[in-house]
Amino acid sequence: RPPVTPTASLLIACPGRSGSTLVGSVLGLAPRRVFVGELRGVWKEGLAENQPCGCGRNFRDCDFWRKVFAQAFGGFDAPGAVALAAMLRDLDDRSSGLRGLRDVWLFRRGTGPVPDRLAPLARLYAAIVAVSGAALVVDSSKSLRYAALLAATPGLEPRLTNLIRDPRGLISSRSKRALRRDGSERTNAGSARRMRIVRTVAKWALRNALAAHAMRRDGGIRLIYEDFVRDQSWYLAAVLGSSEAATVERRLAQGIGPEGVQHQLGGKWVRGVKISPV
Length: 278
What we know:
The structure is a single chain. The chain is about 50% helix and about 10% strand. It has helices at about 20-25, 45-50, 65-70, 80-95, 95-105, 115-130, 145-150, 165-175, 195-220, 225-230, 235-240, 240-255, and strands spanning about 5-15, 35, 135-140, 155-165, 180, 185, 220-225. The strands form 2 sheets. It has a 5-stranded parallel sheet, sandwiched between helices. The longest helix is centred in the last third of the chain and has 26 residues, at about 195-220. It is globular. With about 280 residues, the protein is an alpha/beta fold. A hairpin with a 5-residue loop joins strand 5 (about 180) and strand 6 (about 185). About 40% of the residues are buried.
């Protein structure tokens, strides 16, 4: 049997409200790159809750995702899709606390039964590539633990971008309302503001330390959000190559309106792509 070419994916790892949707949307403008948003949430927000896709249609009514699941599993409710959803929820529940930290620390060194049990996950990413015609799946799932699971999955070759936003900007963003795809607003309700700030900064520091460890061993790119807003050229060149980076920069300069549909799950709803330097 001929060797299987691994499916290339780029996972943007960061806390929520760090700008991963913007970065992913920009990468998705490049030829043969497809931005799918937070693919980790496809089982809950997509299959279970049928939330709107970035194209505006509900997940189960979106032609793109219907074709992806048909190719990967035989349909949304096929036994393979249902079993994989349950398995990933179980792994996520059991990978909390110290065990979750261990998984992230080991990263590419998948241990125990995880590689065999996660093998069907590769079919989902391969189907996205087949349906979109892309060579790279851009995934803003954010979670380093999810990145570790992808790295342990046969048939996947994840690359890591550790997106770092100034914690002051992150805290400010989390205090503001965000637009849901149905037009309603959402805000982050929580405990006392001071405790929320301390917890946010502590998680920010831990996530970035773990990402630095993973990239020292396996490579990746550290991207400062504020730098990206000012100048996207170096990062685009590093990920896409100089020719495709120039193509994206020209499209950004012209302005991308609602016609630039990307079948994005999760994150803030992006109707168009516009970057205003800070």
